[in-house]
Amino acid sequence: MSGGWRLLGHEARVLLRSRSFWLAWALLIACGFLALLQGRDLLLSQQALMAQLPELQQTEQALLEQRYQNGTDAGNVGYYLFLPTSHPPSSWAALAVGLRDSLPVTMKVRLLGLYSQLFDAELVNPLTAAAGPFDFAFFILFIVPVWLIVLCHGLLARDREDGTAALLQAQGGRVWQLLWIRLGLRVGLALLAVLLLLLAGLVWLQLAADQRLFYWLVLTLGYIGFWSVLCALIVALRRSSAWSLLMLLVLWALLTLVAPAAVSAWVDQRYPVADAPVLQLKQREVVHTGWDLPKETTFARFFQTHPEWSETAPVTERFHWKWYYAMHQVGDDSIAAELTDYRDRLEAREAWVRRLGYVVPVVGMQRGFAGVAQTDLADHLHYQDSIKTFHDQLRAFFYPYLFNDRPFELADFARIPSHQWQPAPLRSPWGSALGMLAWIALGLVVSQRLLRRQ
Amino acid sequence: MTLRSPVLLVALQEWRYVCRQRLLLWLFGLLLVTVAIALLQSWQQARQLSEQQQAMQQIVDQQWQQQPDRHPHRVAHFGTFAFRQPSALGFFDPGVDPQVGNSLFLEAHRQNPANFSAAGQASSLSRLGQFSPAFVLQVVLPLFLMLLAAAAVLREREQLTGRLLLAQGLAGWQLRLGKVLAYAGLACLMVALVQLQVLLVQVVTIGVSTELLVSLFGLWLGYCLALLACIALAVWLADGCRDTRQALLLLTALWLALVVVMPRVMPFWLQPERLDSRVLFDAGVKAELRAMGDSHNPGDPAFGRFREQVLERYGVARVEDLPVNYGGLLMQEGERLSSEVFERHYARLQAQRTAQEQRLHWTALINPLLALQQFSMALSGTDPAAFRDFEQQAEAYRYELIQQLNHLHTHQIAFENDRGQRVSQAHWQAMPMFVHQPEQLAQLWMRSALPLAVLLLWCLLLGVLCYRGGRR
User: Fold this and answer.
1) How do B103-107 and B110-115 pair as beta strands?
2) What is the C-alpha to C-alpha distance for residues A440 and A307, in angstroms, rounded to an integer?
3) Contact A158/B70, CB-based, under 8 Å?
4) Is the predicted pLDDT of residue A159 greater than 80, yes or no?
5) Per the CB < 8 Å rule, is A258 touching B122?
6) Which residue in A56, A125, A273 is closest to B353 by CB distance?
7) B45 and chain A: CB distance < 8 Å anywhere?
8) Which one of A42, A88, B137, B371 counts the least CB within 10 Å of its CB?
9) pLDDT at A172
10) Do A292 and B68 touch (CB under 8 A)?
């Protein structure tokens, strides 16, 4: 027992005295810090954008209020008034930017058909978006494993190559003991770096220290554990350090670069959504055909989904706003089936990625981190749902004016509903964490067996 | 170089060595299989997109043709859609294609964004780039070639065979360049095998054109140059290293910095200003349009001067006396003005984007792999400029179409009871639909020439460095 402690003390001294180790450690910290900085920058710019919206809204609304100060038809207000919606980031979004840098996080909607507005793309620079963000999740997923590989690939081979192996054996240490001690020290210091950075993030980015911290820690520990065990496994094969490095890098490239890309491509191909514009094609066709149909036809379709207005007076004049908005609503209603189908396909994609995440560690982690930060596709769909709810509220607010021919007074402007954001409930990443645990256990057993075979 | 040239002999020796190494052969086999899977996957996806787009194009054409007799301005609001044809080599290197939308709604008064980008609908995994042959060749292959080339140089030193060779009269530079030649040869072979796969897929599906062959050859050349630069860099650095271990670590770190970190960190440092969000952009355009007036309203005082000019031109006193429909003229004028406003704002946005792109292009000077990335997507027709070309084609078509409809409005609709009238569907049935014209090969070459020149420079520089050797 004391032999093990002595070995640990010795190894720790050797490692901590090594200048190149501290250089590598400092580089790791610097990379992590850079990742925090970049995530924070995106978060701040999005928060600043959202802070601008109320004022922008007030200016535009004031113009309308001035134009219609003596009251007007509610149809005019519904047509000209665009209302802002926003998707505020969770405090953890800075750590895993997810899709937030390429999907819209604010959007304006008006009373017209929702599905001619909901899918409008954000203005991004495709070139910079293509590379993707360098955030803390990226740092943990891609940089930390390489750091571990670089530091751990030669844990046993170095002694052999430097000719000091015999010396060590003479001291009576067991090889497996030596490996786990050396590996433990390096992994421990990597973990320390990640934890320090996370702590800095907690203070600096004011991350909410709730269950998300716990999830994040579990995922990080599991992932670093996975790579440590993989390093141990390769080292335990006791080939040359160059061979181990090459093999570990091949595994790294396969697991972190090729596997997620292949999973993603497979899932995307299995559930293609390239026909999504059909939603807009069809909605537009129905809305515009309304102009050439008898008004009763449009109203008959509208009343099917909105029976509460079926008793209101029929439109006899050439144009009436309620007819216009009914056309738009009929357009939205007409694509209900296609919309469900489209959403089903997107959700099927998510479900498959989740399932594959149990088996492919990087996929599970990437999903897990984005899930904890609530920056993934699921969260964007939740935002779209909140816009849909808001649009329904708007219609519920304006329809009484339109269908009961009630004039829209100046005071009514203040009563227009506004978009509310309720974050989706957090999904726990236990599935991926368990999958990871299974891999770690398997790796531990195999590498210990290999090591015992002295 | 004669057959007995020492450089060639070293290279031949190295090839023989590689062929004897089971592990290396497995590794190259694995890489080729990965590329083949990526190729099939990527091609399948491109085919799916193209099929679904053709189906949608048919729906759009049909919808356009089947419109009943309508008021021309109704037709202008009905609008049409423009679809972006995937580039022929998009499945080899998708470039920024997954980030941009492929469908654009074209209507009166408004310039819409291209919607439904692949990345916006993807499961949250695709942040490292789409799985494609180019991805494997640009990201994974350089790492292995660099490590192998470095190990090859240091093997000679550590096993003392190098000293033996030097004693036999082989110069240091001959040894180094021999190793470079060996691995560059392997790289050229690998890339050629990949290009052959691409060619095969093309032959089976759409047939081969001279243009395609030229592009494929160009791509082959660019990739070979970039990989040659990487290998020369590795050999030169390895020559200055203490031992294999140090060299491998150095090269791993370098690769990580060049391929993984730089492309993601550089944009952050190189774009001082963020692009306006669409909400702010639209607000800016809207504020200006508000001052312009409403072209739907012939009585709008904002167009008073325009009305006077029109009356003067036709020599009449009232708009009702004009031989043409004043409402239609006003629509034409309104469309012209609103397009101008939009174009101005969009040009500003585009200038911001281009500035960011250009700064990234400059970083290619310090990173040959970024130059390769730019070269590859430019020649494959999947760079931001190729997308911009589509946007411009679509906007030009939109403007022309809307103005044709406004022209109908002016000449076929009477001013009196304007909205109550319709014109025959035959009028717009004769109008051509939008067809996206892919760019000419010459244009693609113009954009890829600069990164190719940068790659050449890198090769020359590193060739010279290799020739002169490191410190040891």
Assistant:
1) antiparallel
2) 59
3) no
4) no
5) no
6) A125
7) yes
8) A88
9) 62
10) yes
Contact B384 A264 (CB under 8 A): no
Contacts 24+ apart (CB under 8 A), A79-82: A79/A110, A79/A111, A79/A112, A79/A321, A80/A110, A81/A110, A81/A111, A81/A416, A82/A108, A82/A109, A82/A110
Report the Cα B348 to chain-centroid distance in Å: 21
Interface of A with B in 263-292 (CB under 8 A): 263-269, 272-278, 280-281, 284-285, 288, 291-292
Query: How many angstroms away from the CA of A411 is the closest CA of chain B?
Result: 24
Nearest to B470 by CA among B184, B186, B179, B257: B179
B360 or A83: which leads in pLDDT:
A83
* Dihedral Cα B262, B268, B269, B274, nearest 10 deg: 150
Query: d(Cα A384, Cα A378) in Å, to the nearest integer?
Result: 10
Report which listed range, A236-240, A254-258, B378-382, is most confident.
B378-382
Distance from CA of A404 to the nearest CA of B (A): 26
Residue A371 contacts residue A93 (beta carbons within 8 Å): no
pLDDT at residue B173 in the model: 86
Chain B nearest-CA distance from A396, in A, is: 25
pLDDT along chain B (472 residues), means of 10: 74 90 88 90 88 93 93 93 91 91 91 86 68 90 92 84 77 88 94 93 84 93 96 92 85 91 84 81 90 84 89 90 91 93 92 87 89 95 94 95 94 89 91 91 92 94 85 52
| Interface touch A49/B279, C-beta < 8 Å | yes
The span from the CA of B416 to the CA of B71, in Å, is 14
Q: Does residue B122 belong to the interface with chain A, where contact is any CB pair within 8 Å? A: yes
In angstroms, the CA B338 to CA A375 distance is 36
Predicted local confidence at residue A10, as pLDDT: 85
Q: Dihedral sign, CA of A203, A204, A208, A211?
A: negative
How far is Cα B296 from Cα B48, in angstroms, rounded to an integer? 42
Model pLDDT for residues A201-234, shown as the tens digit of each residue: 999 998 888 899 999 999 999 999 999 999 999 9
Mutation choice for A interface testing from B100, B123, B377 by most A CBs within 10 A: B123
Q: Is pLDDT above 70 for A2?
A: no
**CB atoms B276 and A122 under 8 Å:** no
Which residues pair with residue B107 across a beta bridge? B110
CB-based contact A133:B260 (threshold 8 Å): no
Two tokens, residue B97: 């294609």
Best interface-test mutation with A: which of B127, B254, B424 has the largest number of A CBs within 10 A?
A: B127
Give chain A's mean pLDDT.
90
Q: How many domains does chain B have?
A: 1
**What's the pTM value of the predicted model, to 2 decimals?**
0.92
